[in-house]
Amino acid sequence: MTIKELEEFRMICQRGSLARASKELFMSPQGLSRVLKNLENELECTLLDRVASGIELTESGQRLYDYANTVLSEYDKLKKEIDMIRASEEGTVELLVAYDILRYLTPDCILEFQKKYPNVTFSYMESDMREKLISDLTDKELKGILDELFMDDTVDLIEEMPSNVVKKILKAVNKEDRKTINELLKYPEDSAGSIMTTEFVDLKENMTIEQALDRIRKLAVNSETIYTCYVLNQNRILQGIVSIKEILLAKENCLISDLMETNIISVNTLEDQEEVAKKFDKYDLYALPVVDNENRLVGIVTVDDAINVLHDEVEEDFEKMAAMQPTEDGYFETSVWKHAKNRIVWLLFLMLSSIITGVIITNYENAFAAIPILVAFIPMIMDTGGNCGSQSSTLIIRGLATDELEPKDALKILWKEIRVALVVGVILTLVNGLRIFVQYKNLQLAVTVGLSICVTVILSKSIGCLLPLIAKKLKLDPAIMAAPLITTIVDVLSILVYFQIATAIMGL
């Protein structure tokens, strides 16, 4: 449903005929009829009845007509305000950027723009700049800004600020909002309660449609979303939900209890925010109610907050998979020392664990002395094993993240990966075995290397799929069982396999 369609529908209602409306709009009656049909299909109702005198609005049509008048009136106001901004060449340019890309926008570019449009300002600010601005604002100015923020955004702002700035912010809000903010700050950092907003539309079961619309109009101004309304009893226990679409299309004397859906998907305040975000993807939600242990509605999580959570979780998993300690700061905001500290722990662990590989190689010095060419194939076998393990672990970690796979599926996953490994291993064995035989004219060497590769592939894929599942079972993040760790384990096993097979086949 677009603004243009609403304008065309209103014209039909005002002229009482498709033919007369089409002349006013300079459209064909057929084209206008298609617009009407599209609206009826979208809303799943009949909007107009054909009568002898022309057309007559149905109850749903009358409701849409009233809605169109309201929307178009607000739209006209918005256009006038924008025209005024354009005429005076003033306003705000919001710089929505990610991954610190703003740093690549040269100051010269911004300065040139501001010379041309001196009354236009830019709203992007990093946390240190926000802190300085808040410190410089008067209490009255700060209150005006906070009044425009939703409660969850205010809490997010407070969490990023030092204690002196937090005190100033809390001083600027009213007593009721201060109480709400303090309650939200008490929830664990990664819980549903920490990302929810307390501003939503609540209704009662016994409300008529007219009463419900009056309440929606009253609460909509300060609500983050009105697409879904929540039905509560006198104890604020969640009874059901109802969409604004259903309310608009219902008869005026209809009760909310007749429309509401009682099969509700909700989350507890203490539920992990990543699990909350996954529910948005699973059930195609725009908002998700958050309840306490007594099923009382205390807030909602909106889809924009869920997207932010998923974004942060992906960044964290990438850092873990690269063998680094996760950090909440951007690349440029993180000091060199902190970068080094986040990386050194895993690097030391992986370096020390690789010593085992060196010890194994040292124990087979006699084999090297007898057949020096064996050394040339060590990198290839280790790299092949590490790559195969990384492939399997990546697929399993992705499956766990999307809830496609679970630890209970371990045997099925292992059996499938073994079959994949056999196919891959046989192909790699044949290719390498043939190459070695042609190059060195040594069948024993070809069989040794080929068989080592095949066994290494099977082991590495088995390890690569099992370790993330074990981590998930132990309530650990599967991302830590990613490429660096699996590669190190596979390196040790591949060297052991290689020299054991070489010793057996070549009699070393």
What features would you describe in this structure?
The protein is mainly α and 508 residues long. It has four domains: 3-88, Winged helix-like DNA-binding domain superfamily/Winged helix DNA-binding domain (Arc Repressor Mutant, subunit A, Orthogonal Bundle), CATH 1.10.10; 91-179, no CATH class; 195-302, CBS-domain (Roll); 354-506, Tetracycline Repressor, domain 2 (Orthogonal Bundle). Helices cover 64% and strands 8% of the residues. The chain contains 23 helices and ten strands. It has helices spanning 3-15, 18-25, 29-43, 59-88, 107-116, 127-136, 139-147, 151-160, 163-172, 175-185, 192-195, 209-219, 244-249, 256-259, 273-283, 303-321, 336-353, 355-363, 365-370, 378-401, 410-440, 443-473, 483-506; strands spanning 48-51, 54-57, 90-93, 119-122, 202-203, 228-232, 238-243, 267-268, 287-291, 297-302. The strands form four sheets. The chain has a three-stranded mixed β-sheet. The protein has a three-stranded mixed β-sheet with strand order 8-9-10. Strands 1-2 form a two-stranded antiparallel sheet. Helix 1 (3-15) crosses helix 4 and helix 7 (139-147) crosses helix 9 (163-172). The longest helix has 31 residues, at 410-440. It is elongated. The chain starts with a helix and ends with a helix. Residues 89-107 have low confidence and may be disordered.
